[in-house]
Design a protein that fits this description.
Layout: H1 10-13, H2 16-22, E1 31-32, E2 38-40, H3 44-58, E3 65-73, H4 78-91, E4 98-101, E5 108-112, E6 122-128, H5 138-145, E7 156-163, E8 167-175, H6 181-195, H7 220-236, E9 254-262, H8 264-276, H9 283-302, E10 309-313, E11 316-317, E12 332-333, E13 336-340, H10 347-363, H11 366-377, H12 382-392, E14 399-404, E15 411-412, E16 415-423, E17 432-439, E18 442-450, H13 456-471
Helix pairs in contact: 3-11, 3-12, 4-6, 7-11, 8-9, 9-10, 9-13
Length: 480
């Protein structure tokens, strides 16, 4: 059993060497006031995600959240998990930070107050359900739909679903500007260390951040930013329609649909993906994108809503060296892949189109262009960037994201992790996000959607179409 954590203010919870550093004037905008008050900046990707989160909330949606879903087998006592979550909050002060704005230009930064109760950083919610009788997705749908207020209150919530036979499902949810899915996975590893009585090894510095991925100076950085704006405007011209007609009187709720596949099913997909795609990087991603575009085009055509072009953004990690420096922050780039309807008639042609655009994104330095555009936008008044996001964010057909969970975290205390997956709404509105994650021999597909955009029966039909595209039309697939 874990000892109850002592309640410590932030200026004692942070390691001594870091406290000394915090008391000095820091040129990277870090400001430390009395009683451990601390301000530190968002990186350019965090900033654009915050803008999107606030734009979605301003329009009545839940915002831009991320949810890490963990399936486990074995003992995981409720009281022990709660104590470990309290300790996690005291170890990582960044989990208690809130957004504050500068007085003149209204630029956002993370704000940390030393006397806040760090042990309450993660809200805990427990359910005892039986999959034979209860809907175990209902608590997940409620938590993903609950808006995260980045200005006050707790930023993380852990939903613990306890099932018969020592089976558990955990859902950890947070606002995307705080961290990406990799950060949530790292935090899960820290929670495992605490449950095992070890000191977590993840860097506790709230301001620990990835170094800037590019080092262009004047005027190259400014030219790259204008290149990014040109790309942004060209994508904005390809606004996509709804795949189906607007559901009647549907609420603006966010929901998640999940399907998991094991062993032979995943091997079937990977074998078909290699057969259908040319050798090269991002092979599985290209196979998913082609399947996504073909399924979308088929469904849109059946609904009488086809278009000549289809636009799909995909998040990819930026190049970096070394391990993750801290728990918070996002470090991704987003290429936008465009398919013409005629490209989708032949899978090989569609794969070549996707491969060429991925190559162009890196060889023509479009990844730098988008990053420098984000960095320039982070210097504007927040209201300006939120207005542009609300009215001039390219409206894609659907978003696609993927993550391969490694084997660095296989247990949580004494419970064995059986599967890891994720979900989260799209970073443009109104819209929906298709996700693929892998862990061990498992592959997971998810659709996160707003009900006033894409209703549940059509989500299930779309996932059925995706299964035919990914596994072959003649194969019977029974998801776990």
């Amino acid at each position: 059993m874990l000892p109850a954590p002592a309640i410590e203010p932030i200026d004692h919870a942070i390691p001594k060497g870091l406290r000394t550093q915090m008391l000095k004037k820091d040129p990277d905008f870090r400001k430390v006031g009395p009683a451990g008050v601390m301000d530190y900046p968002l990186n350019p990707v965090d900033h654009v995600l915050l803008v999107t989160h606030e734009s979605l909330r301003h329009r009545g949606y839940c915002g831009l959240s991320v949810m890490l879903i963990v399936d486990l087998e074995g003992p995981l006592p409720q009281a022990e998990l709660q104590r470990a979550l309290h300790r996690l909050g005291t170890c990582y002060p960044a989990l208690s930070a809130h957004i504050r704005y500068s007085s003149i230009l209204h630029r956002p930064s993370w704000h940390l107050v030393g006397r806040e109760p760090l042990e309450e950083a993660v809200e805990y919610e427990h359910h005892q359900l039986d999959p034979e009788r209860d809907d175990i997705l209902a608590p997940l749908n409620r938590v993903i739909d609950d808006p995260v207020n980045v200005h006050e209150g707790r930023q993380l919530r852990l939903v613990h679903i306890e099932m018969p036979g020592e089976r558990h499902r955990l859902a950890l949810r947070w606002a995307h500007p705080l961290m990406d899915i990799e950060g949530g996975h790292a935090l899960l590893g820290a929670l495992h260390d605490i449950l095992c009585g070890r000191e977590p090894s993840l860097n506790p510095d709230p301001a620990a951040a990835f170094p800037e991925p590019f080092a262009a100076g004047f005027p190259a950085a400014q030219l790259r930013a204008w290149q990014g704006r040109f790309l942004y405007a060209s994508y904005d011209r390809l606004r996509q329609p709804r795949i189906v007609q607007r559901p009647e009187a549907a609420p603006q709720h966010c929901r998640v649909a999940l399907r998991a596949y094991v062993g032979e099913q995943r091997a079937r997909f990977e074998a078909l993906a290699k057969e259908r795609t040319a050798p090269g990087p991002l092979r599985y991603s290209r196979a998913i994108l082609v399947a996504l575009a073909r399924a979308y085009h088929q469904m849109a055509t059946n609904q009488g809503r086809p278009r000549s072009h289809y636009l799909f953004p995909q998040s990819l990690p930026l190049a970096r060296k070394g391990p993750r420096p801290g728990v918070c922050g996002n470090h991704v780039s987003i290429p936008w892949i465009v398919f013409a309807a005629s490209d989708l008639e032949d899978r090989a042609k569609a794969d070549a189109v996707a491969g060429r655009q991925f190559r162009d994104f890196f060889e023509k330095r479009r990844d730098q262009a988008m990053w420098y555009m984000y960095r320039a936008a982070a210097r504007w008044p927040f209201g300006v960037t939120r207005w542009l996001t609300t009215h001039r964010l390219p409206r894609a057909a659907a978003g696609f994201t993927g993550y391969q969970f490694d084997q660095s975290v296989t247990h949580l205390g004494s419970a064995r992790i059986v599967n890891l997956s994720g979900a989260g709404p799209m970073n443009c509105h109104p819209g929906w996000m298709f996700g693929r994650t892998t862990f061990g021999d498992r592959m997971n597909l998810s659709v996160t959607y707003f009900e006033d955009y894409f209703d549940t029966p059509n989500v299930e039909r779309f996932l059925d179409l995706m299964e035919q595209e990914l596994f072959g039309p003649d194969v019977s697939i029974a998801p776990v």
